[in-house]
Amino acid sequence: MTEDVLDQLIWSLESTLPTLAFIALGIVAVVLEFRRKNNELEKRSTIIQTALEKCDGTVPDELLRALNSPKRSLKMRLLNKLLWGIICSLLGIGIIIAVLIIYDKDYFEDVAALLVFGFAFFAVGAGLLAYYFIARRVLRTEIEKEERMLKD
Fold this sequence. Notes:
The protein is mainly α. It has helices spanning 3-54, 61-68, 74-102, 108-138, 140-151. It folds into 2 domains: 1-69; 70-152. The chain contains 5 helices and no strands. Helix 3 runs antiparallel to helix 4. The chain starts with a helix and ends with a helix. The mean pLDDT is 82.
């Protein structure tokens, strides 16, 4: 191999390595989440089997409610959407303002890419905020029922 071919090979490897690392990180995250959920399901099935053996084939309603109850209330899940909507919207607006302040005509391609990135963050944040306000109105009765059940 000539030195130019070797340099091109090294440069192409250096340019694709971050992308490959990002893809590998995503795959690892998906596998770990799958294993966590599978492990949780196995634990629940073991608990139910033990309860069936001890209770002569009937599982108490309290146990089933405890095993099937959501980890967070509906209100907390909606507030989480509100939080991420605000964060994404403000991050998008911040990126857009920063790009417009630092705007340089010589680097238009980089500026355009950052503007698209900022608008994408803003759009995701606006979508989450819209989801929060619509879901809060639609799910008002379910939230009130859930809060009453928690008080009792």
